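Dear Dr. H.,

I hope your travels went smoothly. While you were away I took the liberty of generating a structure for the chain from your last submission, since the lab meeting agenda had it listed for discussion. I wanted you to have the full record in hand beforehand rather than looking at slides cold. The sequence, exactly as received, is reproduced here:
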Amino acid sequence: MDEDCSVLQEEEREALLSIYDGDEAFKQVSPTVYQYKYGEDNDNKSFLLEVEWHNNYPSEAPKINLDMFYNKHIVSSVKENIKDKISKEADHYLGESMTFTLFEFLKDFAEELVADQPEKEVTESITKLSIDDDDSAKKTTKKEVMSKSQKRKQWDRLDSKGEKPRGYDWIDVVKHLSQTGSSKVEIST
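The corresponding predicted structure, in token form, is as follows:
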């Protein structure tokens, strides 16, 4: 990594954090990745722009990313249009800190760039969707068949409300202790 680039990146990082302090649309993902959200939440024309700095940034243009989950509703032609405009704008500022400039450029032209975005959500075509069934899932469990006497015996174990009586699972403490034996405890005086 070029020393001049690292110094410029550190200066720009500090500037971005001070400029966008308190701006909910801005987010620092990592020291070299920044995001800015354009538009309102749940608006079909809102999108999230991610700018990632390379080792040689700002001598080289940053990586522009629009392939986040938040942008799943944006059609690919609109994404490409935004990337092209940002890339052309970034070429003008090579050698200078440009992340702020790119974010502000998009603020001015965001509505124009998403003009081709349909109002209603359009889902990209899904080529093939299939669910593989397990053979084990197809097997049905066999229902337990009980005789009349087994059913009667089970019914007799329940009280009038259909519940097991109080204390059905209690343990006889004296019987239990007599089976386990007593532990030898030494008492020192």
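Two observations you may find useful: The two ends are 77 Å apart (CA to CA). The longest helix spans residues 3-19.

With kind regards,
E. W.
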